[in-house]
Amino acid sequence: MITTTPSAVTPLWDSVAAAPNSPSRARVAEALFRRAASRLPVRVVFADGTRLGAGDSGSPLMRVLDARSFFHRLGAHANVGFGESYMAGEWSSPEPADLLTPFAQRLPALVPRPLQALRRWAQARRPELERNTRAGALRNIRQHYDLSNDFFALFLDETMTYSSALFRPDTTDLADAQRHKIDRALDVAGVRAGTRLLEIGTGWGSLALRAAERGARVTSLTLSAEQRKLARQRIAAAGLADRVEVHLRDYREEDGRYDSVVSVEMVEAVGSEYWPRYFRALDELLLPGGRAALQAITMPHDRMLATRRSHNWIHKYIFPGGELLSVPAIEDGLRRYTSMEIVQRHSFGPSYAETLRRWRTGFLDRWPEAAALGFNDNFRRMWEFYLAYSEAGFRSGYLDVWQFGFRKPHER
Question: What confidence score (pLDDT) does residue 18 get?
Answer without folding.
Answer: 83
